[in-house]
Amino acid sequence: MSDIAGFERGPRVEFDLRVPLDGYVAAQVARTPNAIALSDSSESLTYDRMWQRVETFCAVLAERGVGRGCVVGVCAGRSVDLPLALLAIMLSGAAYCPLDPAQPARRLRRIVEQARPAAIVVAPELESLVKEAAWGTGCEEILPIGGSVAPAQSPTPAQSPAPAQPPLRGDAQPAQPERSFEPDDPAYVMFTSGSTGRPKGVVVPHRGVVNRLLWMQGELGLQSHDTVLQKTPYSFDVSVWELFWPLLVGARLHLADPDGHRDPRYLAECIIAEGVTAVHFVPSMLSLFLEEPLAAACRSLRHVVSSGEALSGSTMRRALEVLSPATLWNLYGPTEASVDVTCWRCLMQPATDAVPIGAPIANVDCFVIDERGGRVPIGTPGELCIGGVQVALGYVGQPELTAERFVDSPWSPGPIYRTGDIVRWREDGLLDYLGRRDEQVKLNGVRIELGEIETVIRELADVVDAAVVVRADVGAAERLVGYVVARDGAAVDEAQVRRELAFSLPPHMIPPFVVFLERLPTTANGKLDRNALPSPSAVKLEPSGSL
Question: What is the pTM of this model?
């Protein structure tokens, strides 16, 4: 395996992981106290004012017994109060756990039951939702966001150690006592969908988050005059770098209006008005954003980051054209590995080339294994496993699932995480994403990768986005169903789609049903909601004729 040994390990960089994330933010507060740190549509805060409010709320949490080893739930909308609450929780030594108000109370209840938070921080307008979700779970401490409840006493909040030598810029240090801290202390617990229907809570330590953010700063080089747009729901791990990256370097974090992340027109207007220089898009949303005429006027953008789904070649090329001279980055990573673990700076390339997910980032290892657990050679598909400092601690309250997915490996000093994603090494040392292991299906005894079909459909002329699923409600047997979003005004129909697919796919991989939608349904995190895709029976009764 000497031919892949040089690809598997990301660069080794000696970041100071002995300091928690909030410690790095505190150091920046001391360097630039009067710079604008946070803003939304109604207010803005300097770094100094931000930290005063963080410390005030931390004192409230400390009075309620919140400290190291605790989990604190957070149910709030998008405003400057959100990062304030998250920082205060981490400053107390606890980990935050998002309770997304867009989710139904029943699901929130399951999260509360598993996370067992010591307290729940809630926006006033969401208090009834939280009380319904927490009722009978044993979590009785519900606090208004922002620390509007004064503590009975005025204890000195636990303080984070500051970096001994800040690796970003500036020499000023905050004068504060150290609090008890280990790099493996959890920073947050983030719940994702579980295959069994039970949400699973990923416990992510400070060391992984800090490594991820310091790598990003070294690679993208955010400056004090930059503005990062925070638009991702905070229950989605991309929000972690949106929320905290700018606060490590003296830049400004601007929070988009609630639900603004779904509106391409609003996003373009916000980017222009606020002079946003760095923004993230899930590929499906990036595709829609590029259809907005104002997208081309977003000239302030320096960095556009895409992750969360496979980035198609057509969307990549369109983004490089419309958003030039901004740099487009394609990142990949599961929640179980501190947001992102591979990166590729997108370049214009032939339409026939796949968009790689890149190479391992600093202090991260990527191993591609076969069904027997052996590493595969270049060009051979296999399951991606992740090692290094960004691997999460496991799933809260689910030791069996943790043991199944976080396993020992002879190639890594710590556990590696089995992602279930199918990838392959390229000759240039980059990884191609091929699909999910659990999206591999069999129809009539033939194995099919749904991701492959989706990729081909997205590359068709006048197609903006696509999804493919197997449905059992379309006749006597399971059938492939394709869902297509066509470009506005495009004269594309089902027969044309199937006819063009025949140039790239064998007959058994061409969906007999093709349904056209204005847009694909998405979850609160902006990812495809496969459960919300309509049945073709609502559109027609028979599939199109054979080719």
Answer: 0.82
